[in-house]
Design a protein that fits this description.
By secondary structure, the protein is mainly beta. It is 7% helix and 42% strand. The longest helix is centred in the N-terminal third of the chain and has 10 residues. This is Periodic tryptophan protein 1.
Amino acid sequence: MTSFIPCVKWVKQGVSLHQNTIKLSQQELKELTETKPKEKELSKSDKKDYGLENYDEEEMDMSGAMSIGGLAVYNNNDFNDSDTDSDKLDEILKPDDNLVLVGNVKKTECSLEIYVYNGNDKDFYIHHDIILKHPPLCLEWFGSIGNFCALGSMSAMIDVWDLDLIGCLEPTFRLGRKKKKNPEKNYGHTDAILDISWNEHLPHILASGSVDETTLLWDLETNEPHTRMENFGDHVQTLKWHPFESQTLAVGSSDFYVYDCRTYDTYKNWNVKGKVERVHWDPSNGFLCYIGTDRGQLICYDCRADKPLWKYKGHENEVTGIYVWEKFIVSSSTDETLKVWDRENKHLIKIREFSGALHSLDGCTDNPSLVAVGGSGTSKFQLFDINDFSLKTC
């Protein structure tokens, strides 16, 4: 398995100011270290065979050997070390810190990495990470019940992680259910999850698209799917909630769809040559939506019209990310390039070449000129500044 970054996501400032580290209390540690296993009574013949009759006469100090107490690390407020103090300071987040969520697939393990970026202090470092059982395919932040990350993978279930907990081994909860003994009680997706989108206007709603050719709308208050949309005829590769309208959802599959989710079967669709890899709503004009295809095309749709406003060949390979800010459109591709376009005049401003395929990008809400880029090779995770076209690495 090659090493690459399949998904990245910015988290806005001020949502994660209360981190907690998973650790045992003094009482729990005491109970754990003082617990002794039940000893099996040995017969006289056993004692003779093992030479245990004179065992008590031997002088040997085994206190603490092979016990958890000998491995436990206690907090000591009097201990002062510059490196330890520096690490503690890094764990404390400031109100103007942004988090960047990064799904990292390595050769031997997979992880969710949480980075910190501060535009004022120019701090950029990894805060903590979470080891994952399955390679991440997509992720989404949501803040309806805290500071959480919903993560999709090949497992057909959505793992939800509490980002304020450091050192957790299992997700806080999962969306979906698979029971071998009672398959009639299963619900959710039946194949890999390719994209997730949170509805900020209806914060208890989460949308997900899957290889099983369905889109599900999850109710985060019950952790069960509320609405099921199907008959796409192909994988649901990408989806995105409208920035202003709570009921409108853009979906990309073999065609491009815009759903009115007040009913499951009200939608408008446009035929697309190839497959839709990415969708992105215009942040200032609610009628416009941009899509990127597996053939490298960038297409802009006005949802009131039957034909696209414009389209042109943006990349040689599939488009893996789209971001729109002011007069700029930023796109990434597996052709190892990131391109900046003039949104009004439809011409190319800048090409930034990388040393590996690019798989994802996301723009920062608080620093909108800053784009997180995930790729492979030596250009795995970097920050790209649209203003001066510079790159920042951790």
